[in-house]
Amino acid sequence: MPSSVAWGADTCGSLDRVIIAIRLARVLYPELSGQEFSLQFSEGTGGPTSSAADVRSFLIAVDKPQWHPPGTVDTKDGLRRDVAAVESGHLPMPLFLQFSFMEPATLDSKYLLSCRPIQFLNENGGGDQMNAARAAINEHPEWSDARDVEEAQAHGMHFGPGKKAAILRRISLQKLSEFYGPLRVKTIEFSVASDRVKEPHTTFADLRWYVIAEEVGTSRALQITVESFGAEIDGISEYIVRK
Protein backbone atom coordinates (compact mmCIF):
# COMPACT_ATOMS: atom_id res chain seq x y z
CA MET A 1 0.00 0.00 0.00
CA PRO A 2 1.46 3.42 -0.95
CA SER A 3 2.30 5.69 1.91
CA SER A 4 1.53 9.40 2.04
CA VAL A 5 4.98 10.57 3.06
CA ALA A 6 6.12 13.57 1.01
CA TRP A 7 8.45 16.53 1.06
CA GLY A 8 7.09 19.85 -0.10
CA ALA A 9 4.22 18.10 -1.87
CA ASP A 10 2.22 19.84 -4.58
CA THR A 11 -1.50 19.33 -5.21
CA CYS A 12 -1.09 15.61 -5.94
CA GLY A 13 -1.25 12.87 -3.33
CA SER A 14 0.27 9.42 -3.21
CA LEU A 15 -2.64 7.70 -4.92
CA ASP A 16 -2.66 10.38 -7.63
CA ARG A 17 0.98 9.62 -8.46
CA VAL A 18 0.30 5.90 -8.75
CA ILE A 19 -2.59 6.63 -11.12
CA ILE A 20 -0.43 9.03 -13.16
CA ALA A 21 2.33 6.41 -13.43
CA ILE A 22 -0.13 3.82 -14.70
CA ARG A 23 -1.56 6.35 -17.19
CA LEU A 24 1.95 7.08 -18.50
CA ALA A 25 2.68 3.36 -18.83
CA ARG A 26 -0.45 2.98 -20.96
CA VAL A 27 0.64 5.87 -23.18
CA LEU A 28 4.15 4.49 -23.63
CA TYR A 29 3.04 0.89 -24.11
CA PRO A 30 -0.45 0.83 -25.70
CA GLU A 31 -0.05 -2.96 -26.03
CA LEU A 32 -0.83 -3.17 -22.32
CA SER A 33 -4.31 -1.68 -22.67
CA GLY A 34 -7.18 -4.12 -22.28
CA GLN A 35 -4.92 -6.91 -21.03
CA GLU A 36 -4.79 -8.66 -17.65
CA PHE A 37 -1.46 -8.53 -15.83
CA SER A 38 0.13 -9.16 -12.48
CA LEU A 39 1.19 -5.82 -10.97
CA GLN A 40 3.67 -5.60 -8.10
CA PHE A 41 4.71 -2.33 -6.48
CA SER A 42 7.90 -1.60 -4.57
CA GLU A 43 9.69 1.44 -3.22
CA GLY A 44 12.63 2.88 -5.15
CA THR A 45 14.24 0.30 -7.44
CA GLY A 46 13.90 -2.72 -5.17
CA GLY A 47 12.00 -5.96 -5.59
CA PRO A 48 8.36 -6.64 -4.73
CA THR A 49 7.46 -6.03 -1.11
CA SER A 50 4.45 -6.50 1.12
CA SER A 51 5.23 -3.41 3.19
CA ALA A 52 4.16 0.18 2.55
CA ALA A 53 5.82 1.79 -0.46
CA ASP A 54 6.74 5.48 -0.55
CA VAL A 55 5.53 6.87 -3.88
CA ARG A 56 8.19 9.54 -4.23
CA SER A 57 10.09 6.93 -6.23
CA PHE A 58 8.75 3.48 -6.98
CA LEU A 59 8.81 0.53 -9.33
CA ILE A 60 5.92 -1.30 -10.97
CA ALA A 61 6.66 -4.86 -12.12
CA VAL A 62 4.28 -5.90 -14.90
CA ASP A 63 4.03 -9.61 -15.69
CA LYS A 64 1.58 -12.08 -17.13
CA PRO A 65 -1.24 -13.06 -14.76
CA GLN A 66 0.20 -15.34 -12.12
CA TRP A 67 -0.09 -16.30 -8.47
CA HIS A 68 2.78 -16.72 -6.03
CA PRO A 69 2.24 -18.23 -2.57
CA PRO A 70 2.99 -15.61 0.12
CA GLY A 71 6.68 -15.27 0.85
CA THR A 72 7.91 -17.18 -2.20
CA VAL A 73 9.02 -14.14 -4.22
CA ASP A 74 10.94 -11.30 -2.60
CA THR A 75 13.20 -9.98 -5.38
CA LYS A 76 12.86 -8.93 -8.98
CA ASP A 77 14.94 -11.93 -10.01
CA GLY A 78 12.26 -14.19 -8.58
CA LEU A 79 9.78 -13.11 -11.22
CA ARG A 80 9.22 -15.29 -14.28
CA ARG A 81 11.47 -13.99 -17.04
CA ASP A 82 10.03 -15.62 -20.12
CA VAL A 83 10.14 -13.44 -23.24
CA ALA A 84 6.83 -14.49 -24.76
CA ALA A 85 5.06 -11.59 -26.43
CA VAL A 86 2.07 -9.77 -25.03
CA GLU A 87 -0.99 -11.06 -26.91
CA SER A 88 -1.54 -7.80 -28.76
CA GLY A 89 2.10 -6.78 -29.23
CA HIS A 90 5.73 -7.76 -28.80
CA LEU A 91 6.68 -6.48 -25.35
CA PRO A 92 8.84 -8.96 -23.43
CA MET A 93 7.61 -9.81 -19.97
CA PRO A 94 8.15 -8.91 -17.23
CA LEU A 95 8.49 -5.13 -17.44
CA PHE A 96 10.23 -3.29 -14.62
CA LEU A 97 9.02 0.31 -14.80
CA GLN A 98 10.66 2.86 -12.50
CA PHE A 99 9.06 6.22 -11.73
CA SER A 100 10.42 9.16 -9.75
CA PHE A 101 8.32 12.22 -8.90
CA MET A 102 11.10 14.05 -7.04
CA GLU A 103 12.13 17.47 -8.34
CA PRO A 104 15.85 18.37 -8.07
CA ALA A 105 16.95 19.78 -4.73
CA THR A 106 16.56 23.52 -4.32
CA LEU A 107 18.98 25.92 -2.66
CA ASP A 108 17.54 25.12 0.75
CA SER A 109 18.30 21.41 0.11
CA LYS A 110 14.63 20.39 0.12
CA TYR A 111 13.11 18.15 -2.50
CA LEU A 112 9.75 18.94 -4.06
CA LEU A 113 7.28 16.37 -5.31
CA SER A 114 5.76 16.76 -8.74
CA CYS A 115 2.50 15.65 -10.34
CA ARG A 116 4.46 14.41 -13.37
CA PRO A 117 7.18 11.74 -13.44
CA ILE A 118 10.52 13.55 -13.35
CA GLN A 119 12.24 10.31 -14.37
CA PHE A 120 11.02 7.10 -15.97
CA LEU A 121 13.01 3.99 -16.84
CA ASN A 122 12.09 0.62 -18.32
CA GLU A 123 14.85 -1.66 -17.04
CA ASN A 124 14.18 -4.25 -19.74
CA GLY A 125 13.98 -1.89 -22.72
CA GLY A 126 14.83 -3.75 -25.93
CA GLY A 127 14.57 -7.13 -24.24
CA ASP A 128 16.93 -10.06 -24.73
CA GLN A 129 17.77 -9.14 -28.33
CA MET A 130 19.21 -5.79 -27.30
CA ASN A 131 21.10 -7.35 -24.39
CA ALA A 132 22.63 -9.96 -26.70
CA ALA A 133 23.63 -7.34 -29.27
CA ARG A 134 25.28 -5.18 -26.63
CA ALA A 135 27.20 -8.15 -25.21
CA ALA A 136 28.52 -9.06 -28.66
CA ILE A 137 29.58 -5.48 -29.43
CA ASN A 138 31.23 -4.98 -26.02
CA GLU A 139 33.57 -7.88 -26.83
CA HIS A 140 34.98 -5.98 -29.81
CA PRO A 141 35.98 -2.41 -28.92
CA GLU A 142 38.13 -2.40 -32.08
CA TRP A 143 35.05 -2.48 -34.31
CA SER A 144 33.92 0.68 -36.09
CA ASP A 145 30.50 2.16 -35.45
CA ALA A 146 29.38 0.80 -38.83
CA ARG A 147 30.47 -2.72 -37.84
CA ASP A 148 28.65 -2.34 -34.51
CA VAL A 149 25.46 -1.43 -36.37
CA GLU A 150 25.81 -4.50 -38.60
CA GLU A 151 26.14 -6.72 -35.54
CA ALA A 152 23.11 -5.14 -33.90
CA GLN A 153 21.07 -5.63 -37.08
CA ALA A 154 22.09 -9.28 -37.14
CA HIS A 155 20.58 -9.54 -33.63
CA GLY A 156 17.30 -8.01 -34.75
CA MET A 157 17.75 -4.24 -34.57
CA HIS A 158 15.19 -2.60 -36.88
CA PHE A 159 15.46 1.07 -35.91
CA GLY A 160 19.12 1.99 -36.21
CA PRO A 161 20.71 4.98 -38.00
CA GLY A 162 18.63 6.17 -40.92
CA LYS A 163 15.34 5.52 -39.11
CA LYS A 164 14.97 8.99 -37.61
CA ALA A 165 11.60 9.63 -39.28
CA ALA A 166 10.27 6.29 -38.05
CA ILE A 167 11.39 7.04 -34.48
CA LEU A 168 9.71 10.45 -34.53
CA ARG A 169 6.49 8.84 -35.75
CA ARG A 170 6.60 6.39 -32.83
CA ILE A 171 6.90 9.14 -30.21
CA SER A 172 3.52 10.65 -29.44
CA LEU A 173 4.42 14.13 -28.22
CA GLN A 174 0.73 14.98 -28.11
CA LYS A 175 0.05 12.24 -25.56
CA LEU A 176 3.18 13.03 -23.56
CA SER A 177 2.01 16.64 -23.48
CA GLU A 178 -0.85 15.51 -21.25
CA PHE A 179 1.81 15.03 -18.55
CA TYR A 180 4.46 17.63 -19.43
CA GLY A 181 2.63 20.36 -21.33
CA PRO A 182 3.25 21.29 -24.99
CA LEU A 183 6.44 19.68 -26.35
CA ARG A 184 8.64 20.48 -29.34
CA VAL A 185 11.48 18.26 -30.61
CA LYS A 186 14.81 20.08 -30.52
CA THR A 187 17.32 17.34 -31.39
CA ILE A 188 17.37 13.62 -32.16
CA GLU A 189 20.50 11.46 -32.34
CA PHE A 190 21.34 7.76 -32.50
CA SER A 191 24.04 6.50 -30.13
CA VAL A 192 26.08 3.41 -30.92
CA ALA A 193 28.39 3.69 -27.92
CA SER A 194 27.96 5.54 -24.62
CA ASP A 195 30.01 8.75 -24.72
CA ARG A 196 31.56 7.39 -27.92
CA VAL A 197 34.26 5.69 -25.86
CA LYS A 198 35.24 2.09 -26.61
CA GLU A 199 37.72 0.42 -24.30
CA PRO A 200 38.50 -3.28 -23.68
CA HIS A 201 36.65 -4.91 -20.77
CA THR A 202 34.10 -2.09 -20.54
CA THR A 203 30.38 -1.83 -21.23
CA PHE A 204 30.00 0.82 -23.91
CA ALA A 205 27.37 -0.43 -26.39
CA ASP A 206 24.28 1.78 -26.27
CA LEU A 207 22.01 1.33 -29.35
CA ARG A 208 19.49 3.97 -28.37
CA TRP A 209 17.98 7.10 -29.83
CA TYR A 210 18.17 10.28 -27.73
CA VAL A 211 15.42 12.81 -28.32
CA ILE A 212 15.49 16.22 -26.66
CA ALA A 213 12.04 17.82 -26.46
CA GLU A 214 11.55 21.33 -25.14
CA GLU A 215 8.64 21.99 -22.81
CA VAL A 216 7.22 25.01 -24.63
CA GLY A 217 7.00 28.18 -22.55
CA THR A 218 9.13 26.83 -19.70
CA SER A 219 12.81 26.44 -18.81
CA ARG A 220 12.46 22.64 -18.79
CA ALA A 221 13.11 19.93 -21.35
CA LEU A 222 12.78 16.16 -21.63
CA GLN A 223 15.43 13.69 -22.67
CA ILE A 224 13.54 10.76 -24.19
CA THR A 225 15.44 7.56 -24.94
CA VAL A 226 14.10 5.03 -27.44
CA GLU A 227 15.51 1.52 -27.79
CA SER A 228 16.32 0.54 -31.38
CA PHE A 229 14.81 -2.96 -31.53
CA GLY A 230 11.10 -2.32 -31.01
CA ALA A 231 11.28 1.50 -31.05
CA GLU A 232 9.73 1.70 -27.57
CA ILE A 233 10.44 4.60 -25.23
CA ASP A 234 12.57 3.15 -22.41
CA GLY A 235 13.50 6.32 -20.55
CA ILE A 236 12.32 9.87 -19.83
CA SER A 237 14.25 12.42 -17.80
CA GLU A 238 13.13 15.99 -17.17
CA TYR A 239 15.77 18.64 -16.53
CA ILE A 240 16.21 22.40 -16.27
CA VAL A 241 17.68 24.04 -19.36
CA ARG A 242 20.78 26.00 -18.36
CA LYS A 243 21.23 29.22 -20.31
The overall pLDDT, averaged over residues, is: 82
Structural class: alpha+beta
Q: Major β-sheet, in short?
A: 8 strands, antiparallel
Strand arrangement, largest sheet?
2-4-5-6-10-9-8-7
> What is the succession of H and E elements?
EHEEEEEHHHHEEEE
Point out poorly predicted stretches.
Answer: 1-9, 71-89
Task: Determine the N-to-C terminus distance.
Answer: 41 Å
Number of helices: 5
Helical content class: 10-25%
Number of strands: 10
Domain module tally: 2
* Estimated radius of gyration: 19 Å
The shape, in one word, is globular
Share of residues in strands: 25-35%
How would you describe what is shown here?
- This protein is of the alpha+beta class and 243 residues long.
- Helix content is 21%, strand content 27%.
- It contains 5 helices and 10 strands.
- The chain has helices spanning 14-28, 127-138, 145-154, 164-170, 173-180; strands at 2-3, 38-43, 53-54, 57-63, 95-100, 119-122, 183-193, 205-215, 220-227, 233-240.
- Mean pLDDT is 82; it is low at 1-9 and 71-89.
Short description:
The protein has about 240 residues and is of the alpha+beta class.
Give keywords:
globular; 243 residues; disordered N terminus; eight-stranded antiparallel sheet; alpha+beta; 2 domains; Nuclear Transport Factor 2, Chain: A; two-stranded parallel ribbon
Secondary structure blueprint with pairings:
Elements: E1 2-3, H1 14-28, E2 38-43, E3 53-54, E4 57-63, E5 95-100, E6 119-122, H2 127-138, H3 145-154, H4 164-170, H5 173-180, E7 183-193, E8 205-215, E9 220-227, E10 233-240
Parallel strand pairs: 1-3
Antiparallel strand pairs: 2-4, 4-5, 5-6, 6-10, 7-8, 8-9, 9-10
Helix pairs in contact: 2-3
